Amino acid sequence: MSAIDTNQFRELLLEERQRVVAALKNLHDDHAGTLTDESGEESAYDNHLADTATDTYDRELDYTLEENSEHVLADIDAALKRIDDGTYGICTNRGEQIPVERLEARPWATLCIDCQRDRERR
Ligand SMILES: [Zn+2]
């Protein structure tokens, strides 16, 4: 089991946070904006992390809904707090370490994939 480099994830989270804040600002400024125009200019965020499972990533990072962005923002803040607490990367359900690959795709994850699936099934 390799230790998680929390500095790396703190940076990821802070970057992601800036993007979400910017996305929210856009939503507030211009409610006409939609992401149906995927070939347009709204792809500023997708170069960067292109090598992690893009399907999941695109789905989970869907900023089309304002509600969703605010939810992600809260999750990001909670994850930053967990880094400070020293509990980052630990599944909140059963206490096992969340695989680094999952954290790289979704740095604010609080559950391992198994527990997440369990919860979504309910
Ligand atoms: Zn778990």
What does this molecule look like?
With 122 residues, this protein is mostly helical. The chain has a single domain, classed as DksA, coiled-coil domain (Four Helix Bundle (Hemerythrin (Met), subunit A)), CATH 1.20.120. The chain has five helices and no strands. Helix 1 runs antiparallel to helix 3. The chain starts with 5 loop residues before the first helix and ends with a helix. Zinc ion binds next to helix 5.
What is the structure about, briefly put?
With 122 residues, the protein is mainly alpha-helical.
User: N- to C-terminal separation?
Assistant: 30 Å
Instruction: Give the overall pLDDT as a whole number.
Output: 79
CATH superfamily: DksA, coiled-coil domain
What percentage of residues falls in helices of 4 or more residues? 40-55%
Low-confidence parts? 37-44
Output the helix-strand order: HHHHH
CATH architecture: Up-down Bundle
Shape: globular
Whole-number total of structural domains: 1
**Largest sheet, if any?**
none
How many β strands by DSSP? 0
Assign the CATH class: Mainly Alpha
